């Protein structure tokens, strides 16, 4: 397929709510983003020619690129992007390595994304084949004796995301409830065990660690795990949510720095990182979800405090990516806008998008995988396309689709 064809980017403009700002400004801004998306897509495609052919992950590899094109097909309705997405995911499905089980860094990513793309193309047989292979990983995930961690990047929560992703994108029951429940139970049992070992059963009934460190953030830590457990699709029972998850969240909340930011781990007292992986931009998603589930104002209030820190310190020298860059931090505003409908947060997202429009002009460090979804350019494009369609935006490989929003 010709790249020129793919670069046609007819985004439906949904900035109605900004009408009072003057339509000329909105049109100019929209046009600048659309032009930048085309420009970055072209750079990305060029750069990918020298990317690692064996990296199939969503985080730094080809599944991430497939997810970007899936996103572009979603926001534009253009089938060409879906076919492009298929090309990339097919490549990953031939290269599964069986080393890891998560959506972001393991085989669950290519298999879940493959299942969704084939489903959209009405290739149900191929879709089912992906689901079957995904479920073959289930046994190692639920085994308590395995060394598998629980966090999102390499652990059980990252496999749980893949199951919930299928039930959201294809439909409820795609993965049966009992399979989801077993993974949820394994995560809960593991959290209880560590909490008992560390004598924190009273204060933090579900405690997690990765490489012997009790991380707080979304990627390796408790914020990401609690966030997954609170997803409606995870169907965690009310008692567990109230008795186990909620006090654990409150325990983590008390580790907040005076600035409103969060430490990278429970033992770290340096208020330095403002990343999705470590810091307020990841924890904010846990707080927003806690507000939806428990309906207590304190969670929303602290989510807004997170967003203030991100607004002040969230444009990073590390660049424009999703995991630890401007795009990932910008998503916190889009998600908060979703939750509150307060235009201030949308304005902030637009300002972060504006920063991304000057991609490369701020002397930022060039990431190791400069075109990837979570470290590089693909993530920036994903964010920019979501700024154009804020009503349906979602943090890739983390937030679930709109059916799961409320
Ligand atoms: Zn990161």
UniProtKB/TrEMBL annotation:
Keyword Nucleus in annotation: yes
Location of the protein in the cell: Cell membrane; Cytoplasm; Nucleus
GO biological process: carbohydrate metabolic process; negative regulation of DNA-templated transcription; peptide modification; positive regulation of abscisic acid-activated signaling pathway
Segments crossing the lipid bilayer: none
Keyword DNA repair: no
One GO cellular component term noted in the UniProt record for this chain: nucleoplasm
SMART domains to which the protein is assigned, alphabetical: LANC_like (SM01260)
Single GO MF descriptor: phosphatidylinositol-3-phosphate binding
Keywords associated with the record: Cell membrane, Cytoplasm, Lipoprotein, Membrane, Metal-binding, Myristate, Nucleus, Phosphoprotein, Zinc
Residues that, per the record, bind Zn(2+): 277, 323-324
Pfam families: LANC_like
Family classification: Belongs to the LanC-like protein family.
Record text on subunit structure and interactions: Interacts with an array of inositol phospholipids such as phosphatidylinositol 3-phosphate (PI3P), phosphatidylinositol 4-phosphate (PI4P) and phosphatidylinositol 5-phosphate (PI5P). PIP-binding enhances membrane association.
Role noted for this protein: Necessary for abscisic acid (ABA) binding on the cell membrane and activation of the ABA signaling pathway in granulocytes.
Record protein name field: LanC-like protein 2
Species in which this protein is naturally found: Chinchilla lanigera (Long-tailed chinchilla)
Lineage, uppermost ranks: Eukaryota, Metazoa, Chordata, Craniata, Vertebrata
Name of the gene: LANCL2
